[in-house]
Design a protein that fits this description.
Number of strands of chain A: 6
Oligomer: heterodimer
Low-confidence stretches of chain A: none
Number of helices of chain B: 5
Largest sheet of chain B: none
Mean pLDDT of chain B: 75
Shape of chain A: globular
Shape of chain B: elongated
Helix content of chain A: 40-55%
Helix content of chain B: 55-70%
Largest interface: A-B, 28 and 24 residues
Number of domains of chain A: 1
Strand order of the largest sheet of chain A: 1-2-6
Structural class of chain A: mainly alpha
Mean pLDDT of chain A: 90
Order of helices and strands of chain B: HHHHH
Distance between the termini of chain B: 49 Å
């Protein structure tokens, strides 16, 4: 047997193995209280959140998202909802220490290819493709940023202006966005009532489902309007980039719109982007908390309805 | 099933009572030394001054001088 070196390790018996202190923001405590009173948080989640008001509010947010189509949204979109103490996640602390901010932003953009659906709907009514497009994109962009052919056209316009400044324009080649937009998209969209009338007479099942899903989406987003934000909060985004797109809409895979998106996306994070949605919350004010959660519910249900449209789109799930 | 049983034990009133204790600084967690420290900016500020002073003092003296020896038989600090 070897000789003992005489070195011993200090005994840790009886020492606490975990030291947990939650330095809770008073706003988080107030929010947790309001959520409990309003029934927007499950008391059962308190222990699971290790009795932390922040963790408890986070659990309430997760529960709320699950109640309002979280699972359906995840099939096509990568959205995050956050409650923060500052409107600018990349900036410093907020001076107005009494407010919290509910924000929604994407990790990456969802992708919808509408060309095959547009072709299909042209057979039902010549103006139905444009109507379907505007019902779908119009609803989604009420809540989050959508990148579509209009953004791509703006991009090309800007590139042309830059090239003009350079002198020899001939050396540049611009994406043909105009050429990739189906002609039926240039027709005037039908009124919602007219689309509803047409929907009843569609024989093709997929065309019917698509139009019906777009009409459902059109009902959902209208339930609430986006709450206005204060001038102080707006000022926090004065030097920010536009919000990150939550959805990219193209007509074909790898068309000119997708090309412009890829090109433009290189600069999306050159400056911190504005959030897609921001709602100010006074955590002690029940109406303010209720309004924020109701707003989030409508956004989620809109995105879940958009996700149902995406699941029906022919050719949308092909790889590559 | 186990999860559901655990959830039902905590009532809305119990959660609100505990949150009220936290809001008013009456929660047992707020009374421990660490609890008081994380809630008290003055304690944090005093600690920062002390920590900076120790750091400044250790920079002024050559290494090895004034070090406290570990108790006999203990491993030397790494």
């Amino acid at each position: 047997m070897g000789q003992a070196s005489g070195v011993i390790l200090p005994k840790l018996d009886g020492m606490p193995v975990e030291c947990r202190i939650s330095a809770e923001d008073p706003r988080a405590i107030k929010l947790a209280q309001t959520l409990t009173v309003l029934g927007l948080a499950e008391p059962g989640a308190w222990d699971e959140a290790k009795r932390s008001p922040t963790g408890y509010a986070h659990a309430a947010l997760k529960w709320w998202l699950a109640l309002h189509g979280g699972e359906q949204i995840r099939q096509n979109f990568a959205l995050n909802a956050t409650i923060s103490g500052s409107p600018d996640l990349y900036g410093g602390e907020d001076d107005r220490r009494e407010l919290l901010y509910l924000m929604v932003d994407p990790d990456s953009a969802g992708y919808m290819i509408l060309g095959p659906a547009i072709e299909m709907l042209e057979h039902v009514h010549p103006r139905l493709p444009a109507s379907f497009y505007h019902l779908l994109v119009g609803a989604v962009q009420r809540w989050v940023r959508v990148y579509d052919y209009r953004d791509a056209l703006d991009r090309v316009e800007m590139l042309r202006e830059w090239a003009e400044g350079e002198g020899d324009q001939e050396q540049y080649e611009f994406p043909d966005v105009e050429g990739c937009v189906p002609p039926s998209m240039k027709l005037k969209p039908l009124s919602v009532k007219h689309v509803q009338r047409i929907a009843g007479s569609i024989n093709d099942q997929l065309s019917y489902q698509l139009v019906q899903a777009a009409l459902d989406l059109n009902k959902v987003w209208r339930r609430l309007s986006r709450p206005a934000i204060s001038e102080e909060t707006r000022e926090a985004f004065m030097d920010s980039n536009p919000p990150l797109p939550t959805l990219l809409v193209t007509f074909k895979r790898h068309d000119a719109v997708a090309g412009c998106f890829d090109d433009e996306s290189q600069a999306f994070l050159e400056a911190s982007p504005e959030p897609n949605l921001i709602v100010e919350i006074d955590p002690a004010d029940h109406a303010s908390v209720r309004k924020a959660f109701d707003t989030l519910a409508v956004l989620c249900e809109t995105m879940a309805a958009a996700s149902r449209v995406a699941a029906l789109l022919p050719g949308n799930d092909q790889e590559g | 099933m186990q999860k559901a049983t655990r959830k039902s034990k905590t009532t809305r009133e119990a959660v609100l009572a505990e949150l009220a204790q936290l809001a008013e600084g009456r929660h047992p967690e707020c009374k421990s030394i660490t609890g008081r420290f994380v809630r008290c900016p003055e304690l944090q500020h005093a600690s920062k001054i002390l920590s900076d002073a120790i750091h400044a003092a250790s920079n002024r003296h050559p290494a090895g001088r004034g070090e406290i020896s570990p108790p006999p038989g203990w491993l030397l600090p790494v």
